[in-house]
Amino acid sequence: MSGMLAPEVLVLGASGRVGSGVVAALLEAGSPVLAVARDASRLERLAAMHADEPGLEVMVASVSDDGAAAELARRVSRRPRGLRGVVDATAGVRRTSRLLDQPAPVLTASFEQEVLPHLAAARHLLPLLKRRGGDRYLLAGGPHARCGWAGYGHASVAIAASRMLVQVLHEEAQPLGVRVQMLSIDAPVWTPDNTGRACAGWHGTLGIGRAMVSLLATSSPDARSIVSYADTAGERPPGMLGRDFAAVLDAASGTPGPGWAA
Description:
two-stranded parallel sheet, oxidoreductase, SDR_fam, NAD(P)-bd_dom_sf, Short-chain dehydrogenase/reductase SDR, Rossmann fold, oxidoreductase activity, 9 helices
């Protein structure tokens, strides 16, 4: 029966601002989702928001270091579904301060929270993704990686390092047949929680999620390592992942659809 299951997309940081939008867009497109986050209560709220979606499963786990990422990879490897893709929507804690006002270890901490978890996740999930049939590994990039973010200098430097990390991983993953890309989100993200201080030009979470779905789609021609969210327009993808899911359901009911191979 496991061969009849549609492959899922693993979303890291699924209960966060960007991650929750990615989960919603994937479900909208008809894709099964494995939503991973560290906070069990926030994952429960995410599951409650999509209580009518049978394709959503949640898992409490972390990629904060190599050990945690390796354990996550082991747990995912035991799952019955294949793995279509990975979306890393994790982000470090971003506190406002001037670089010149803080000692050097504060910048070190920013790297440890913002950059190193991306590397730990990629080290253990990229090989697993290839073994389980997937070929897309996406990361969400924060704003102002190429110019300073006023008051958030530590975050700007760390986000810029994450951008370079993706460009290196993009090259190193090519022999695996996996495309690594970053969706560069060039402005803060609007949510119902920050409506009172949101400004014009902030991005909605569902639009970002739909842009991620577009990059995950098999038909996507974009091979750049860094893709600006502004280039994608956040338009609703036309059932890109749903076609695969529908084929599996047709086969399970004994009426194989186009493109289904037993």
